[in-house]
Each structure stands twice: as structure tokens, then as C-alpha cells.
Amino acid sequence: MNHKQLDSHLRQLDEIERIQVVTRQNINDIGVDMLPQSDTGVFRMKGEFFFKKNPVFISKHHRFADMPLHNHDFIEINYVYSGECRQVINGREVKLVQGQCCLLDVDVPHSIAPLEQNDIIINIIMKHETVSQLFFSRLHQHGLVYDFLANAVAENRRHDRYILFHSEDNENLQYLIKNMICEFMDYQEYSQEMLRHYIPLVFTELMRVYQHDKNFELEQQTCRGSIVDILEYIEAHYNDCTLTELAQRFNFNPNYLGNMIKERTGRTFLELLQSQRMIRASELLRLTDKQIHVVAAEVGYEGISFFNRKFKEHYGVTPGQYRKQEQQ
After folding, report:
1. Which structural domain range is residue 193 located in?
2. Furthest CA-CA distance within the chain
């Protein structure tokens, strides 16, 4: 299935839509009754009905009837393939337009208003542990910005229970998601492996969107650099960066900047430098055959014993053990 064939397939009325376009009444096509929870009265969907063969399930949301208030025990991404979508999520009215995504946490109550002919919404649902294994478990292998944004996404997911990504101009994301949909709807050999690889790519692209949104938001509040800009600078200059020099570059008082970094990231300036050194060291151990004392020197450690101790504190294993694990 290519993207043109996918478009034709998604725009056709499916069996449920042929009924709903006439009755305007929602039809439960899950195959089991959705029973309301006794404590909230909200209908609950269970992942066991979707994840029998694959930890990812993708479907088109049926048009022409409302989806009543419900929640589920899995993570969901709503992708607006075409048109628009209006939802009430955790009590808030939310409008999504073509190309945007909404990440919904486990157990967040939401309802969806009826979709019309041109409104095509794709539901991408995943087990919570699948997202953790394929995406969040890899954070230690990336830089400070990636780490900060991923933690911010996780924190927002816990606090607001959903995140709206303004991804309508991100062509890479549209391409990846359409490929995912094709892979799932035209299932063939190795499709499961392909889907497992698409998940971290899609989430990483969403991180780029989130970073852009956060930078725009912060630029409206101050003419000085955002926390993301500051972290990017630390990533690039971790070997020779000082708090005083960083403060001068971004027009902050050093004490104020140190406190702001601690408040926004949960770590001190020195802890961030240390973390970036460890991240860079892990990259060199994984991707090169440089001797460990050379790696230590390259990331700013003169003594191999001190480097070994700090690396083990950060990763739980020695540099030699880490390299051996990564090569297996």
C-alpha cells in the first residue's frame, strides 16, 4: 500500500460508517460491551482487545457519530489525517486540525464530537510498557536537550493527561505516520518489526515539535535565551563551559541562572556538565574502538580511576562493562 492507495482507502465509508451516516448513532464495534466504571461512570476500554498480535494497534476513527466519554488502559495518539477534530479531554475542549497529533495518557477521560466526510482521524494505540521500552528507556543515550524535553513530555502527560502537538507543518512526521498506517493496514512479512522501529522515530519527531512549541512559548515571555537554548549550549561546550561564561552569553546574573537551571531541570549546572560528559563518553564507547583512557581524556577527565568511578555512578557499570554490553 502506498500513500495514494492509503488516501483512497481512508476516505471510503467502512461498514460502520455506512450505518452511522444514516443513524448518527455510535456503534460499538469492539466486540464486547464497554461497561462504565462504578466509581466514575466513564466507559473503559481495555488493551487486551487490541494487542493480541501486536503491541501497536492502528485504526481509523469511525465518522458521523459521537464517541461517548471513555478512557482506556493504554496510551493513544490521535492523528488528524484530514479535516479537523473536536474533543473534550479531561474536561477541556480541544480542537485539532489536519496534521496535528494529540497524545492521551492512560485513564484520561475524553469524548469525540461527530466527524464529517472530510474529517479523518487515525487512532494509534500502544501499551504503556511498549512506549517505555522503545522510547523512554533510550534517553540516557542522548543529550541534555533530549533528556529535558522527554522528561517535560512525561511530566505534562502526568499533569495535564494529554499533550497537543502543533505538528501540522512537520512533513517528516506526516511521512512517518502515513508509513506506519500503511504498514499496519497492509500487513505483511516484517511489518511488526517495522512498526517497532517507527515508534521511536515518531516520538522523536514529536519531541522536535514539542521543542519548537516550548521555545516559541518561552520567547513570548522573555527576550533572553530559553532553557532549551541554554541546554543546547551546554551540550556543545561541556568541556570548557562555566556558569559565569554561560550567564554572560545569555544575559543572566550567574546566581539567578544557576537557580533557574536547578528549578527547570532538577539538576545543578555542574550536574548537567557531568551528565553531558557521561552521555558523550557512552557514545564514544558504543560507536568507536578508542581505548578507555582516550575516551576519558576526550570528555575532560585526566585520571582514568576518577572517570571509571563517575561512569559507574552514572550508568551502574564500568566503561569496559558498558562497551561489552552494547556490543552484544
Report:
1. 3-215
2. 75
